[in-house]
Amino acid sequence: MRLAAALTCLLALALASAAAASPVPERPADIRLEGQLTRADHETYVELAFAVPAGTGRLTVLFRHDGAADRTTIDLGVRDPDRFRGWSGGARDRLTISASDATPSYLPGPLPAGTWALVLGVPNLRAGATTRYTAEIWIDPQDAPFAGLSDASLAAGPGWWRGDLHVHSGHSDGTCQSRGGARVPCPLFKVVEAAAARGLDFVALTEHNAASHTQGLRELQPYFDDILLIPGRELTTFQGHANLFGLTAPLEFRLEAPGATDLNAVADRAASLGAIVSINHPRMPSGEACMGCGWRGDLDGSKIDAVEVLNGGAMAAFGGRAESPLSGIGFWENLLNQGHQITAIAGSDSHDPDRPVEAPGALGRPATVIWAASLSQSDLMASLRAGRVFIDLAHPGLTAFDLEAQAEGASAVMGGQITASPGQMIAFRATIAGAPAARLYVVEPGGAVEVLPVPEGPEATVAFTRRSEGRTGWLRVELRDLDGALLALSNPIYLTAAGANRP
Domain limits at 417? Predict the structure, then answer.
């Protein structure tokens, strides 16, 4: 009895782990297969055929049966019209297969149109027992957005979640030291392990024009259940680099190639796949040391979701200083001044997870901190788009840095918009938790306009006011130490005069 209970427990744990790594779409299944098995099916294989249309990009399966009480065992596998795609036995009740990734036990790759089959192996079905089963199948097209690697939030919110949005592994040009001391392409697990050890809540792996890491992330996510793994892509062109968050599908990056006539066409395609488009290190020089790194591309500002205003590699080149000729803050503010509401983010651009944590450009430094309803890809990406983000350069103890505004009975939080009639007062309040001794700088177009003390203590509030000038604009805040060095910066609240329209 103890052995039976232990086996039942192990099977339940395996199914729970598999479920956490194989999201199931929220909509009703496209195909539903139902039937029953009897003793006649004992020690046989049963195929359940279904049709996959041309243009399919992802296949998701959820399989259930009611025979557990009778100790019925049903193993699961899949074949396509040309080959066997995998066998998970009784370890999983759900699976996904796409061109870039698949549930462990299954092969990623193109999904050919034609007749596929779920293959049921029946190693045990008792005499006199009948087991009913249901297989639900979702068919997603090639341009369907990627929902994430987990079908549940890794942690409930709401709260501030700290992460790194620009990290490389050996799937592009990330390296680390091997066990024997050699410099080698760094395995994905070592990068994720280092990110988890640094206390990050999420990390985006952004390989150069590659999607090969998605499969590895899918395998790692169930084990690393305390850090959200986000597949990304660093679009690397001769006109500049951009990160595309949440992208797993193939994307043409060779400008002037079919489907990528220019950067706008590439951005449109990425957006259609659900990706966030973020310009990387826009003020980096482009030359033999880093071909195409500096941004000189002609991209419509309305297609840009975010700008990497601080980059760990750029900071390292100037001894850890945030403010240097390589800072992207000015580039971002120029876009804000044109009327675009674009989120400022940061990334370490880590290429070596062994880099000491105190060094600029180390994994997690600088960090992007996102307020979201939960620790899930969908919630984080929605909040990133909405500008509910602050950047922390080097102080992991800074757990909150927010900005809110009130005027004429209306209110807004960081990333939002406040409307006030000309001459009316707007009341702002910055909230800070876990900061070292610091001052608050109020920044508007043209630079800092006020410096305010930050009360000592684990939590602080700083209030100030502005009079509406009857035109559109923005206001953000920075946290600086007593010597004026930048510690953190917020995203703006956008200001609009009553009756005015933003460009």
Answer: 397-503
Beta bridge partners of 242: 235, 279
What percent of the chain has pLDDT above 90? 86
Residue-wise DSSP of 276-298 = EEEE--TTS--BTTBTT-S----
Question: Helices 213-220 and 188-197, interaxial angle, to 10°?
Answer: 50
Alpha helices in 53-166 (DSSP H): none
Extract the tokens encoding 46.
């049963």
Give residue 27's identity as a one-letter amino acid code. Answer: R
Domain match, 355 and 413 both: no
Q: Is the pLDDT of residue 17 over 50?
A: no
| Spatial distance between the Cα atoms of 434 and 426, rounded to a whole number of angstroms | 27
Number of domains in the chain: 3
In order of 133, 207, 228, 364, 476, the CA distances from 165 in angstroms are: 42, 11, 11, 9, 21
Same domain, 114 and 210: no
The values of phi and psi at residue 218, to 5°, are -65, -35
DSSP notation for 216-278: HHHHHTTT-TTSEEEEEEEEEETTEEEEEET--S----STTBTTBSSHHHHHHHHHHTT-EEE
Antiparallel, parallel or unpaired: β 156-167 and 202-208: parallel
Evaluate whether residue 153 is within a structural domain: no
pLDDT at 334 over 50: yes
Residue closest to 428 by CA, chosen among 456, 457, 449: 449
- pLDDT for the residue 414: 98
Which residues, other chains included, contact 267 with Cβ-Cβ below 8 Å and sequence gap of 6+?
Answer: 242, 277, 299, 300, 303, 304
Confirm if 230 and 261 have CB atoms less than 8 A apart: no
Q: Provide the 8-state DSSP code for 152.
A: S
Q: What is the pTM of this model?
A: 0.92
How far apart are the C-alpha atoms of 251 and 209, rounded to whole Å?
A: 8
The residue whose two tokens read 């899930």 is 376
What is the b/e burial string over 410-429, where b = at least 16 CB atoms within 10 angstroms of the residue's CB? eebbbbbbbbbeeeeebebe
Q: Which residues contact 197 (CB under 8 A, 6 or more apart)?
A: none
Q: What is the pLDDT of residues 236-254, one digit of tens each?
A: 999 999 999 999 999 999 9
Please give the Cα distance from 136 to 63 (Å, whole number): 6
| Owner of token pair 């003020």 | 283
Amino acid at 476: R
Same domain flag for 435 and 323: no
Label residue 442 by pLDDT band (50, 70, 90). very high
